[in-house]
């Protein structure tokens, strides 16, 4: 059995270092990257600005969210569901879903994607590289919807039109 590698500078296991990406008002810090787990999963800490979130989408991967601070609204089963600190949501593959921060301050949650490479590649492709563990949001430019949709398709994520 191989022992896990620990990077003492970042407290991260694995052969790849951590990274933070800014995408649509989300600062996504990849603490455990897909290459470090043989693509079994990624572990992401997500900080979401007030009023921001993720567009409606679905994928063939498992996804789980655990709220650390603040509140998130999750779109599931055709309706929005409010979740607060200490609550979790599991997204079954193929489920149409989205999330947003309805609060007036930043919200934080952990995200696990399995396998991990699809979401990681998507965010690297469409996001802006940020400082590791950056907490201040860069200005949010208008999104390039065609590029986001195309990257989603390349990475097995189907971006859908907004919910009513």
From TrEMBL:
* Database matches in Pfam families: Cupin_2 (PF07883)
Q: Which domain of life is it from?
A: Bacteria
The protein's name: Cupin domain-containing protein
List the source organism.
Aliirhizobium smilacinae
Which residues are in the Cupin type-2 domain? 49-112
Q: Which InterPro entries match?
A: Cupin_2, QDO-like, RmlC-like_jellyroll, RmlC_Cupin_sf
